[in-house]
Design goal:
Blueprint (H helix, E strand, L loop, with lengths): L5 H18 L16 H11 L4 H17 L5 E2 L1 H8 L5 H13 L3 E9 L11 E7 L1 H22 L2
């Protein structure tokens, strides 16, 4: 052991011994935290927010799909700088990335290998690299009938 590390190692050893001694004293236990019960209304709200099967997630997915269709240029390239403003106020900001991953996994979006620079000041993504995707219209239109049915059902449900 070198002389420069010896004092540090001795100090660490003394600290370990002190912690062990404190933990082994009779009657000394670490208390288990006691959590307050959640108010029934709060519990209902938390369950609603956490429920991925909730209609709002389906509604936002439908809006995301429509945004992809609108954002794609004549070569079916989807620039995230075009897509994000279309989705603002329609899709929760934290879901846009998740929905993009979902669309990639369903082969609706295909990475082009190109990257852009985000200009999204509102979402605090400005200056960050952003992938550019190609929209697969075949996959998108494969979902079109179910998307249209979802929009109609969700619009009807939201009008109550």
């Amino acid at each position: 052991m070198s002389s420069s590390t010896a004092p540090i190692n001795q100090r660490q050893q003394r600290i370990r011994e002190a912690v062990q001694a404190a933990n082994t004293r009779p009657g000394m236990t670490t208390p288990t935290p006691r959590w307050s019960p959640i108010h029934r209304t709060t519990q209902d709200v938390l369950a609603l927010v956490a429920d991925l099967g909730h209609p709002s997630v389906d509604y936002e997915w439908t809006r995301f799909m429509q945004g992809l269709d609108q954002a794609a240029d004549h070569d079916d390239i989807v620039d995230p700088n075009v897509l994000r403003p279309l989705l603002r106020g329609q899709v929760a900001p934290n879901r846009i990335g998740a929905f993009t991953s979902r669309a990639v996994s369903q082969h609706i979006l295909v990475a082009t290998g190109d990257w852009g620079v985000s200009d999204d000041l509102d979402g605090r993504n400005s200056g960050k690299p952003a992938k550019v995707y190609r929209l697969s219209r075949t996959a998108l239109h494969g979902h079109a009938n179910s998307v249209l049915a979802q929009v109609q059902a969700l619009t009807a449900a939201a009008s109550w």
